[in-house]
Design goal:
It contains 17 helices and 10 strands. The chain has about 400 residues and is mainly alpha-helical. Helix 7 (about 95-105) crosses helix 8, helix 9 crosses helix 10 and helix 11 crosses helix 12.
Length: about 400
């Protein structure tokens, strides 16, 4: 009997798109090899289906869709990068370019349009290549009769010990990405790997232990977390937080998720973390009483090429938070973050350009004054193109 991989390898393009192939009286799922046979009626949720229709019910119930199953295949099979995989998932859901850019956090809307053109070019090239291979069949007598490269799901389990995570790390990351609480929705899944692992261990808590889930049930649960549920599901498997059958028909909570729950639940560690948090809060409160806040404009300057990023703040004492975000790989300005990653931290300096003067006038609007101050510096330095990290002169910050 053929494996599910063999069915996918031998199916035609039309059969792959449809999700099943016909072999005599049987209908065979190209994703997992499940069979139905003509003449047999299949009951499902109180409804009776003939064989071909029930095969479509099976695909939807077990795999979600053929598209989702194929997108999960390893990049050695699909030839897709992780970025292209994420883009195709968003396009399949009918997202507009601006929505895709916001969800994935890459480039701009024009960047997404460019990716669309690249994918269309890849499609045209694939058609030509398929035609060449079809024409070659009649001439190349040495070619193997069947494609024998194994088809595998995209997964490579990462051990939890790969990351050094403290309770403070967990609290900071979860507060950042779950602003409505860990039971709410995730703001973005575009983050560094360590943060991904912290977020994913929290998401894994939504699954019940010793329960089996279909792929469709997993998708429905993860849709409550974030729109890019396919990517999150893949990472949960990669990190060993979810385990699954080879054909993706069933999922269950993985051993790494159990291990993380046990670690986080240790009472002595939790008590120590709470005490440290209280001590730190008290220390910050005392410091806040002594420090007078000043509003102003600052820049982050690349000393290697002279490019600058400009912004304002009502409290200049907080600008070191910009350095922290860059160190964590989470700065909102992707151009600045990319060059920070390329040149390294030592290539950049953070400097105060102007401190806003205090005014006792009861009608004085400090926010308005700060905005005008920032605009003056934009006009003076013009931090666009080769001179800075801002998109164009119509926007004051990215």
């Amino acid at each position: 009997m053929k494996s599910s991989e063999s069915w996918l390898q031998t199916a035609s393009l039309e059969e792959i798109k449809r999700g099943y192939m016909e072999e005599g009286p049987a209908y065979i799922c190209v994703c997992c090899g499940y069979r139905t046979e003509s003449g047999i009626i299949y009951p499902e949720d109180g409804v009776l289906y003939e064989a071909a229709r029930y095969m479509r019910v099976h695909i939807e119930k077990v795999h979600g869709s053929v598209f989702e199953y194929l997108l999960e295949l390893d990049k050695s099979v699909t030839g897709l990068s992780d970025v292209q995989r994420g883009l195709l998932s968003q396009f399949y859901e009918g997202k507009k370019d601006a929505e895709v850019q916001k969800t994935l956090g890459i480039g701009s809307a024009s960047t997404i349009r460019n990716h669309r053109f690249v994918l269309k070019e890849k499609e045209r090239q694939a058609k030509i290549f398929l035609a060449l291979m079809e024409l070659l069949k009649s001439k190349d007598t040495q070619a193997p009769a069947e494609w024998v490269s194994p088809v595998t799901r995209h997964e490579h389990t990462i051990h939890p010990n790969s990351f050094d995570i403290t309770e403070q790390d967990r609290e900071k990351v979860l507060n950042k990405y779950f602003p409505e609480g860990t039971g709410g929705r995730l703001t973005t899944f575009h983050m560094q790997q360590k943060h991904k692992y912290i977020v994913l261990t929290e998401i894994a808590k939504r699954f019940e232990t010793e329960r089996k889930y279909s792929e469709k049930q997993v998708n429905e649960l993860l849709k409550e977390v974030h729109d890019d549920y396919v990517e999150i599901r893949r990472y949960l498997v990669d990190y060993g937080l979810l385990e699954r059958e080879p054909d993706g028909s069933q999922y269950w909570l993985g051993s790494h998720a159990d291990q993380q729950s046990a670690e986080v639940g240790k009472p002595e560690r939790k008590a120590k973390g709470e005490q440290e948090k209280m001590d730190r809060r008290k220390e910050l409160q005392e410091q806040a009483k002594e420090v007078k806040t000043e509003a102003g404009v600052y820049q982050i300057r690349n000393e290697r090429n002279g490019k600058v990023y400009i912004d304002s703040t009502l409290n200049l004492k907080t600008i070191n938070g910009q350095r922290f975000m860059l160190q964590m790989g989470s700065h909102l300005n992707r151009r600045l973050q990319a060059e920070w990653n390329e040149y390294g931290e030592n290539a950049f300096v953070i400097e105060v350009l102007e401190t806003l003067k205090q005014d006792d006038n009861p009608y004085y609007d400090s926010k308005d004054a700060l905005a005008k101050c920032l605009n003056r510096w934009f006009e003076q330095l013009e931090p666009y193109g080769d001179q800075g990290y801002h998109g164009d002169k119509k926007q004051s910050a990215e």
